[in-house]
Amino acid sequence: MSDHHHKETFVTKYIFSQDHKMISKQFLVTGIFMGIIGGFMSMLFRLQIAWPEKSFSIIEAFLGDHQTDGIMNPDMYLALVTIHGTIMVFFVLTAGLSGTFSNLLIPLQIGARDMASGFLNMVSYWLFFLSSVVMVISLFVEAGPASAGWTIYPPLSALPQAIPGSGTGMTLWLVSMAIFIASSLIGSLNYIVTILNLRTKGMKMTRLPLTMWAFFITAIIGVISFPVLLSAALLLILDRSFGTSFFLSDIFISGEVLHYQGGSPVLFEHLFWFLGHPEVYIILLPALGITSEIISTNARKPIFGYRAMIGSIMAIAFLSTIVWGHHMFISGMNPFLGSVFTFTTVLIAIPSAVKAFNFITTLWKGNLQLNPAMLFSIGLVSTFVTGGLTGLVLGDSALDINVHDTYFVVAHFHLVMGVSALLGMFAGVYHWFPKMYGRMMNKTLGYWHFWLTIITAYGVFFPMHFVGLAGLPRRYYTNTNFPMFDDLVEINVFMTVMAIIGGAAQLIFLANFFISIYRGNKAEQNPWKSNTLEWTTPVEHIHGNWPGAIPEVHRWAYDYSKTDENGEYVHGKDFVLQTTPLLDGEEPS
């Protein structure tokens, strides 16, 4: 395999590639493009929230008929919120983390030539690309894109005549998501099979880097939960287009009694959130795995509590699939059932706390290398803890009722999921950019990017908790009709200014990323002095990853600063590659 070379054309190498390294780049660049769209939408609706009666030429330029004299229409506000949430959750964070880093790292870190099926890997990307195209096309239909919130609850999403955003735009949303789910399922099955079957000699499951455990468990969650969302989308399509009543009953529109009966919108909520909550960890777990690798590498210390970290990943995965009802406390749920979901929700704080504690103890007294990847990883630990604490409020059925559908909820999940996952994705890009492109990103620009991002992220979402506690409801395009919220106007303006600065800060990353691909300093083979297998491959990408035989593994991935009884490094340096054989008398890891 290693000696096999075949002539590649531009199309086979850069477009219809079956090489996992190229496919990871395709996922990343597509995710970045979708992130630009999703982020720009948030800038538009933040302008509307902060200055609801002020005219903006940028709104007039981009929204066309969906605005009046530079002020966006209410329907378009809800549509922007809907598509922003959809794009960021599925097309940026899922693709940017699982799609990018699972593809890049799984074969490299387990010692495999490629994925179990290169063809299915390619199909997974192109289905993702097609779903992205369909979602973008939905922005340009005449009545506007889907506008039932990213959770697309019926009956708004089930009745094309209900609101303008429930027409063709909603149909395209459902088609896009069905294709996206097919992509995710194919990818997840490929990841699972590859990790189970293609590990190199000596790579026991207990020697896998924590990144591999995170990607592996994430793929399992996806295989379990994504089909449920697919069923919800297909049943919703049947309700919309074929007259069924899975989610509809006793519907009145403009005084007209529609013929639907026997359905239940709460059934849709169950189906949606059975994926919707595990999706939080489908996004978060890869980011946490990436953080484990980067913190250990840059603290020059073994990861603290390796087996406890694996156990916490498994516990989070299990609990995340049985807590979906905490999104439905005000749906008329039986109070006893609510108490069950409260218990399981609060229980998830234990494995989450294990991870946070182990991150902090790995950092403690480490020889910290504060490069951009390390800073973004530490930032993730910060937002994961601060955002997670507010989850204790929302996980309690009695407390949740007071803040449900307020900005408190928006603040919580943006910090604990959105910002944390983005910081993890940025950390991964800075850390593995040399492996992806053979060049280094600019460190100074990376520092600017981090500090502006973390400051503005807290500047937006920390005050938002207090706005939510004051009762400000989410998804309202203006609050000027409610005098009780007049005192919150200045806070909304502050958050919007922070959001715009934070959005502008991402331009630093974009410039650094794309310029470094062509003009960055050339990378050495192992620039971070890391232990894992990917850093044993040549800087220049080759078919099959390693020239000659695949290396054999003799130890775990975290032999940093290993010393003898005299305090001397056992191998003469503060890191030991997994491929390094054990010395006489050295304890195996």
Element string (H = helix, E = strand): HHHEEHHHHEEHHHHHHHHH
Terminal-residue CA separation: 30 Å
Fraction of helical residues: 55-70%
CATH superfamily of the domain at 18-227: Cytochrome c oxidase-like, subunit I domain
Side-by-side strand order of the widest sheet: 1-2
Question: What's the average pLDDT?
Answer: 93
In DSSP terms (H or I, runs of 4 or more residues), the helix count works out at 16
Integer-rounded radius of gyration: 24 Å
> Which ranges are low-confidence, i.e. pLDDT below 50, for 5 or more consecutive residues?
none
Major sheet attributes: 2 strands, antiparallel
* Shape, per Cα inertia axes: globular
Percentage of residues in strands: under 5%
Number of β-strand runs:
4
List keywords for this structure.
61% helix; two-stranded antiparallel ribbon; mainly alpha; two-stranded antiparallel sheet; Cytochrome C Oxidase, Chain A; 589 residues; 4 strands
Describe the structure.
A hairpin with a 2-residue loop joins strand 1 and strand 2 (71-72). The protein is mostly helical and 589 residues long. Helix 4 (74-110) packs antiparallel against helix 7 (210-241) and helix 11 packs antiparallel against helix 12. Among the domains are: 18-227, Cytochrome C Oxidase, Chain A (Up-down Bundle), CATH 1.20.210.10; 524-589, no CATH class. The mean pLDDT is 93. It has helices at residues 10-15, 20-50, 57-63, 74-110, 118-137, 168-197, 210-241, 265-299, 306-320, 335-347, 349-363, 372-394, 397-403, 407-437, 443-469, 489-519; strands at 67-68, 71-72, 252-253, 256-257. It is built from 16 helices and 4 strands. The chain is globular. The strands form 2 sheets. Strands 1-2 form a two-stranded antiparallel sheet. A two-stranded antiparallel ribbon has the order 3-4.
